[in-house]
Amino acid sequence: MQTTILTTPSARATDSLILLLDDNGNIPERVFSKEEGAFIKKELKAERKTIIINQYDRLVIVFQPDYKKDSTRLREACRKAGDSFLGNINKHKLNRIVIQDLAGNAETTLAVAEGLALGNYQFLKYRKDRKKEENPLREIAIKSKSVKEKHTEELQHIVDAVYKARTLVNEPQSWLTATQLASEFVKLGKEAKFKVQVLGKSRIKALKMGGLLAVNKGSIAPPTFTIMEYKPRNAKNKKPFVIIGKGVTYDTGGLSLKPTPNSMDYMKSDMAGSAAVACAMYAIAKSKLPVHVIALVPSTDNRPGGDAYTPGDVITMMSGHTVEVLNTDAEGRLILADALHFAKKYKPELVMDFATLTGAAAMAVGSYGIVSMGTAGEAMRGKLRDSGNAVYERLAEFPYWDEYDDLIRSDIADMKNIGGPVAGAITAGKFLQRYTDYPWMHFDIAGPSFVHSPSSYRGKNGTGVGVRLLYEFFKSM
Question: Is 381 known to be catalytic?
Answer without folding.
Answer: no
